């Protein structure tokens, strides 16, 4: 810790608690010294501080000590009086204002960093003018009547040698009427006489004579001569001017201009001699005299008892006046003189002696003053810290109890107390003292609060938040007193605390007010920079945001110019949303197409992009071979085609904001050759943040090298908006997208640069590559203009029903004069879209063109379809705004949201060595709603080969619409279909309502006759493959399911509904044709569908056996039974499997009552053929043709029969083949016989059984009733 004498407080006490010399001089003396720009006192003042005077002193004791440091204070007699309160207040305000004006130039500098503040020494943390302010504040209490250290110790009388009567002037100067009349100053003070000789215009002879008269009149030791102004020209320049720090209002070159070096030395010697030989000895003698008197009257037990007895009879007063003649005043003078002579023990003993007296007399101001000096004496003598603080606290509290009259003294006491604590490193306690002396005066409070803030930054650990908070409080007080410069300075220092914190509200408060105050002092550009910090204030209330924004724009308008701001936070740009969309060999028909993942497009284009010589490679590998190594990873775009940038803007405020003139900031370095330019760096310089318009400049003479789009939009409170910006280069070169700019209120230009931002490019390369820097991702190699194919699909609905079949037209156009050829197209969903085979439109309107008899409308043309790739005819070539319209068939296969992707490949000739082909990418979304759902159940006929019963179940899954069913068709030439019930009975209401279900039945027949027959080459009449289900339009033709597009869509459905390897060879495919009912007003889809096709594939026949058979023979026989009745039968067996089948037929002679009905085998399911019954037989059957539940009554007494043919026969049946086995029975009596007493044991070949769940089995005979009648 620094010694108390060398501390800030020690130096202050040395200057302020020091002997006062009263100066009395004639006008001619002042005139002499004014030649130097100084008064007499100002000329002597720099030399009144002695750092090593080395004078021996002896006060109360006989022991000498040497006085090292000493200071004199010189005052004119007219200034020795208590300062006027208002004048003192104005002087302090002037000090603060002057300091603010000096700091005005520093207002534009950046605020100091907190690390720099903490690293500075303690003396440099607070502003330098603080010490000067503290001194001036202390001097406002000079010459108080309760203190003696401001009373003049000596009087210096100064007369010029040019005065007419010098001796008389000396006598007249010390007229008692001119002395301060405060009742406290001793008129018999030390007097010293000085004669001033001006070397420029006075004579030496007269001066010598006057000096002799003075010495004879006043004494030899009390008179002295000072010769000055030795420079005749008066132009002396002093390198280290001693008066510069004392009088800053005059140029330092003019101060002391007539004083030579010898003159200055003479002045120094004069003052030092005056102090060491006159002042100090006089004070020393005065202390000894006072001490002797006080010791005789107050010291000792007898005197103390006498003093107490005398005080008991004295009238008490609230603050008894203590005159200079009183004993207490003499003791106070003794203490103050001892303090100024650095005899702190004698000073403390004197202060203690009268402290109790003042307290008993309730002379509180005198008491507080003594306590104050005791605390200072304890400190400067480095004695008890506790006693020093106790005395200062006691003095401060006593001053404050006096009210307004004691506040100034309390302020001085607080300043000394705080300096004492700071010297002892108790900065936190010092801050609290500064806070206590703030008072009600706002300007004074501002300085004290700032004092406190610097104490907090000096505490350990550092209290940064208190530091910042007190700076903000101080700044507010400065502003209230119109000290705007100081308010800005304190707020700037507070920024260093809060800018790195999350205290957003106080940060906004600081920045906003700094901006306002900078505008007040006319620094609008700095004001705008600070106001920009508060624009991102979404957490503030709406009213606060409106205030911020209104004041911000007001300040901007006052500047009268547009301000370009880098990093403007209104609106906020979401850089994670930055997406660059550009076209190289990949072009896009719409924005939706560009937003699709690149992997989807690559999977489509793998089959249509040609391979290079080195195996299969894509365009990117070709590009890397043609471009120089430096630009192998560069993005490539085409001149004349836009590069699009999607960027999200967000309004952080709760109020609407209008954003105008939003555009990209770009650079394009033009070059004549594609490959030459990549060998050179762009000629554009590094980004200049001062002006974004320099980047969007003309780089070639005569016209701009690129075109920029401008967007205007309004963001509501908290709204986000994705904005698309474009740049279109018009010539080859290197294009750089540097950033984005926009305007607010027509006066603020916001700029945001992209250098340090990751970018999502919508042309992902699809292969492993080096990581691009953000600058490379926004850098493009612009090649010369290429043909670009444009495509669209006419009348594509956005919403439709499942099964809806539409006729669309794909229109392709090339506006370039360069031709394109070898067009190929691939579609992501062949199940939904099928290209037509002709170029022109249909001659018959849709859907009539799909009906039978209109096949001539579909003209075949040479096209190629391989691997779902559709190749346009070779003669198709587009150029010069020529277009082609190609038909497309759309069918909504399944419900849901479907994304359709089209990619069209085309080639260009002699255009670019880098790019030989391009692709057009098209993307559309469909919403497919549920319509009709169908299911089919097929069961074999037990009595007829190759005939099956089909049950079709239909459910209308639409929410509100009704449908009509038109036609059911079997696919292929194998199956014929017919109705089992009249058309009118299938759906009497003609329409299927929403949610309604319908079941109807049909008979299908397998038209193959042998396994070697190719059923695909068979041709059945349409009446056998199609069934009409609607009778309202009797002349309406059926739809053709054999030709495209229904046939093409059905092929797609077959591949989607199940792999062919897992499908049974006996599976049946159905197509149901329906339409929206005419009476239904569709609200679900905007375009009413005209035809819907519902495809059901791979419907298997429900049967557990690979065999089907029938027993054929007569149904009724008449026989007279005179001879044996033998009846020949034939068993026809068909192998429905794809493998060889071994079948054993075993007949069983039943000796039991065979006339009793035999229940058919459990393996026989479905229905059977029932012959016409006679009148005697009453048979019941349901729609499904179930077996008889009860035999006729005439069968109960039928005699038995026997199988008279072979009892067991084994045959091999080839796949899908039929064989006939002859059988014979012998009947012995008339009756009705069930000839089902046989069974078939079958077994499949090994290669078939391996893929089948069942390899063998047994089938019971099918009931066959034979009626034998007795002939007459």
From TrEMBL:
Domain TPPC8 first Ig-like, chain residue ranges per copy: 598-760
InterPro entries in alphabetical order: Ig_TPPC8_1st (IPR058541), Ig_TPPC8_2nd (IPR058538), Ig_TPPC8_C (IPR057651), TPR-like_helical_dom_sf (IPR011990), TRAPP_III_complex_Trs85 (IPR024420)
Top-level taxon of origin: Eukaryota
Pfam families associated with the record: Ig_TPPC8_1st, Ig_TPPC8_2nd, Ig_TPPC8_C, TRAPPC-Trs85
Chain ranges of the TPPC8 C-terminal Ig-like domain: 1108-1238
Domain TPPC8 second Ig-like, first and last residues per copy: 803-920
PANTHER family: TRAFFICKING PROTEIN PARTICLE COMPLEX SUBUNIT 8, TRANSPORT PROTEIN TRAPP
Protein name stated in the entry: Trafficking protein particle complex subunit 8
């Amino acid at each position: 810790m620094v010694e108390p004498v060398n501390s800030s407080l020690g130096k202050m006490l040395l200057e302020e608690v020091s002997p006062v010399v009263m100066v009395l001089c004639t006008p001619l003396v002042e005139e002499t010294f004014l030649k130097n720009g100084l008064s007499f006192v100002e000329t002597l003042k720099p030399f009144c501080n002695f750092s090593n005077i080395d004078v021996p002193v002896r006060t109360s004791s006989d022991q000498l000590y040497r006085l090292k440091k000493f200071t004199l204070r010189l005052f004119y007699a007219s200034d020795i009086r208590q300062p006027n309160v208002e004048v003192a207040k104005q002087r302090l305000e002037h000090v603060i204002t002057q300091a603010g004006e000096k700091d005005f130039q520093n207002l534009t500098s950046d605020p100091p960093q907190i690390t720099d503040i903490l690293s500075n020494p303690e003396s440099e943390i607070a502003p330098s003018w603080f010490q000067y302010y503290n001194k001036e504040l202390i001097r406002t209490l000079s010459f108080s009547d309760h203190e003696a250290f401001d009373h003049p110790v000596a009087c210096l009388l100064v007369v010029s040698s040019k005065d007419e009567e010098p001796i008389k002037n000396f006598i007249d100067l010390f007229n008692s009427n001119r002395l301060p009349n405060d009742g406290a100053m001793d008129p018999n003070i030390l007097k010293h006489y000085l004669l001033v000789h001006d070397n420029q215009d006075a004579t030496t002879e007269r001066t010598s004579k006057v000096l002799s008269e003075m010495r004879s009149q006043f004494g030899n030791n009390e008179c002295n001569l000072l010769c000055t102004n030795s420079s005749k020209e008066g132009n002396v320049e002093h390198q280290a001017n001693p008066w510069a720090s004392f009088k800053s209002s005059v140029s330092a070159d003019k101060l002391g201009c007539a004083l030579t070096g010898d003159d200055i030395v003479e002045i120094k010697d004069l003052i030092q001699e005056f102090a060491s030989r006159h002042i100090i000895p006089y004070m020393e003698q005065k202390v000894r005299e006072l001490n002797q008197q006080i010791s005789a009257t107050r010291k000792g037990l007898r005197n103390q008892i006498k003093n107490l007895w005398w005080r008991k009879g004295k009238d008490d007063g609230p603050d008894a006046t203590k005159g200079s003649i009183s004993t207490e005043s003499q003791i106070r003078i003794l203490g103050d003189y001892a303090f100024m002579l650095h005899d702190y023990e004698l000073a403390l003993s004197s202060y203690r002696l009268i402290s109790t007296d003042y307290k008993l007399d309730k002379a509180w101001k005198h008491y507080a003053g003594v306590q104050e000096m005791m605390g200072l004496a304890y400190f400067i003598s480095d004695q008890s810290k506790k006693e020093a603080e106790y005395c200062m606290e006691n003095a401060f509290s006593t001053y404050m109890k006096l009210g307004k009259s004691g506040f100034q003294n309390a302020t001085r006491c607080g300043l000394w107390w705080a300096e004492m604590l700071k010297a002892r490193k108790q900065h936190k306690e010092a801050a609290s003292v500064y806070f206590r002396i703030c008072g009600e005066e706002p300007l004074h409070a501002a300085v004290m609060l700032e004092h406190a803030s610097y104490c907090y930054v000096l505490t350990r650990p550092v209290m940064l938040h208190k530091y910042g908070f007190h700076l903000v409080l101080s700044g507010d007080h400065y502003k209230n007193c119109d000290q705007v410069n100081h308010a800005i300075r304190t707020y700037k220092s507070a920024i260093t605390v809060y800018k790195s914190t999350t205290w957003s509200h106080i940060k906004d408060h600081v920045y906003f007010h700094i901006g306002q105050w900078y505008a007040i002092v006319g620094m609008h550009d700095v004001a705008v920079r600070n106001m920009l910090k508060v624009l991102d204030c979404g957490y503030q209330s709406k009213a606060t945001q409106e205030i911020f924004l209104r004041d911000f724009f007001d300040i901007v308008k006052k500047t009268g110019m547009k301000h370009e701001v880098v990093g403007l936070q209104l609106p906020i740009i979401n850089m994670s949303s930055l997406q660059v969309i550009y076209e190289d060999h990949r072009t896009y028909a719409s924005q939706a197409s560009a937003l699709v993942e690149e992997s989807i497009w690559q999977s489509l284009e793998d089959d249509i992009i040609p391979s290079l010589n080195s195996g299969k490679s894509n365009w990117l590998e070709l590009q890397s071979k043609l471009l120089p190594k430096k630009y192998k990873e560069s993005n490539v775009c085409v001149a004349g085609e836009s590069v699009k940038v999607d960027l999200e803007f967000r309004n952080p405020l709760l109020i609407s904001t209008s954003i105008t003139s939003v555009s990209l900031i770009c650079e394009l370095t033009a070059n004549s050759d594609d490959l030459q330019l990549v060998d050179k760096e762009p000629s554009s310089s590094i980004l200049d943040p001062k002006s974004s318009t320099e980047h969007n400049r003309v780089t070639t003479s005569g016209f701009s090298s690129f075109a920029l789009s401008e967007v205007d939009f309004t963001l509501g409170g908290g709204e986000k908006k994705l904005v698309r910006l474009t740049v279109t280069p018009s010539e080859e070169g290197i294009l750089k997208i540097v950033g984005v700019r926009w305007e607010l209120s027509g006066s603020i230009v916001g700029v945001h640069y992209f250098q340090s931002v990751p970018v999502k490019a919508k042309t992902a390369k699809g292969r492993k590559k080096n990581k691009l820097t953000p600058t490379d991702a926004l850098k493009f190699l612009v090649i010369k203009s290429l043909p670009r194919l444009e495509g669209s699909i006419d009348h594509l609905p956005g919403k439709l029903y499942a099964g809806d079949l539409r006729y669309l037209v794909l229109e392709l156009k090339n506006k370039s004069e360069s031709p394109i050829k070898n067009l190929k197209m691939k579609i992501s969903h062949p199940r939904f879209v099928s290209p037509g085979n002709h170029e022109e439109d249909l001659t018959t309107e849709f859907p009539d063109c799909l009906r039978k008899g209109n096949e001539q409308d579909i003209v075949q043309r040479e096209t190629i379809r391989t691997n779902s790739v559709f190749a346009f005819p070779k003669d198709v070539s587009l150029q010069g705004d020529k277009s082609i319209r190609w038909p497309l068939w759309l069918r909504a296969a399944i419900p849901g949201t479907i994304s359709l992707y089209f990619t069209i490949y085309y080639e260009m000739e002699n255009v670019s060595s880098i790019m030989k082909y391009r692709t057009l990418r098209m993307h559309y979304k469909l919403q497919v709603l549920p319509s009709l759902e169908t299911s089919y159940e097929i069961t074999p006929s037990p009595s007829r080969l190759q005939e099956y019963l089909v049950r079709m179940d239909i459910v209308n899954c639409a929410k509100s619409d009704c449908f009509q069913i038109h036609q059911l068709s079997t696919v292929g030439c194998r199956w014929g279909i017919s109705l089992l019930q009249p058309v009118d009975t299938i759906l009497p209401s003609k329409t299927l309502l929403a949610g309604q279900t319908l079941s109807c039945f049909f008979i299908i027949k397998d038209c193959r006759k042998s396994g070697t027959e190719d059923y695909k080459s068979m041709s059945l009449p349409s009446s056998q493959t199609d069934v009409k289900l609607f009778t309202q339009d009797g002349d309406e033709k059926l739809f053709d399911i054999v030709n495209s597009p229904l046939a093409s869509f059905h092929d797609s459905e077959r591949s989607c509904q199940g792999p062919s390897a897992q499908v049974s060879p006996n599976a049946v495919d159905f197509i149901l044709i329906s339409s929206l009912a005419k009476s239904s007003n569709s609200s679900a889809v905007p375009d009413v569908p005209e035809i819907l096709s519902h495809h059901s594939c791979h419907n298997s026949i429900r049967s557990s056996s690979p065999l089907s058979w029938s027993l054929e023979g007569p149904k009724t026989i008449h026989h007279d039974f005179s001879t044996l009745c033998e009846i020949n039968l034939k068993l026809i067996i068909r192998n429905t499997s794809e493998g060889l089948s071994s079948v054993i037929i075993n007949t069983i002679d039943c000796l039991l009552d065979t006339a009793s009905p035999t229940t058919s085998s459990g393996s026989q399911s479905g229905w059977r053929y029932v012959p016409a019954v006679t009148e005697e037989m009453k048979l019941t059957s349901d729609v499904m043709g179930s077996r008889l539940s009860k035999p006729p009554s005439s069968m109960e007494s039928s005699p038995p029969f026997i199988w008279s043919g072979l009892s067991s026969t084994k045959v091999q049946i080839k796949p899908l083949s039929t064989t006939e086995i002859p059988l014979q029975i012998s009947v012995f009596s008339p009756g009705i016989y069930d000839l089902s007493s046989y069974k078939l044991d079958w077994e499949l070949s090994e290669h078939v059984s391996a893929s089948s769940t069942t390899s063998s089995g047994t089938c019971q005979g099918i009931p066959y009733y034979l009626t034998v009648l007795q002939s007459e």
